Amino acid sequence: MNRGHGWVHPRDDGMRTRCGGPTICRECMQEKAQKDAEERRNGPTPLAQRFARHAPSIEGQTQMELMRAHVFTLAKQIDQTVPEGREKALALTHLQEALMWANAGISGQYESLPILEVACVYDRPKESSAD
Ligand SMILES: [Zn+2]
After folding, report:
1. Residue 126: inside a domain, yes or no?
2. Pick from 31, 85, 100, 124: most CB atoms within 10 A?
3. Cα(122) to centroid(ligand 1), Å
4. Long-range CB contacts (< 8 A, 24+ apart) of 102-109?
5. Where residue 47 falls among pLDDT bands split at 50, 70, 90?
């Protein structure tokens, strides 16, 4: 449906008004505030959840460190036993990948800290430099 300024909710016609969007337009600001409130009520989308930061609890961090120690033991065994070459490189790479996925799973299971939103680097105020 073609309504709104097109900055917060994309219009069917793909157009945007020249208002400048939610940072300077009062109507867009209200639209964005409503949308944000709606998203907070509904919780994160599955995609947002998937790409969100999952901070593990202390128990989770302990399990992750334990996992890392076990995997590192295997990595050292591979490093000492397998001759240099593609197979060794692949074995170590996939071991890293296994650790990453294991820790991602642990992180989700023991999640306790709030998911933090990281501000976009472009949103940071510029540091004033005296040239
Ligand atoms: Zn607007």
Report:
1. no
2. 31
3. 21
4. 102/67, 102/71, 103/64, 103/67, 103/68, 104/54, 106/56, 106/60, 106/63, 106/64, 106/67, 107/54, 107/55, 107/56, 107/60, 107/64, 108/54, 109/60
5. confident
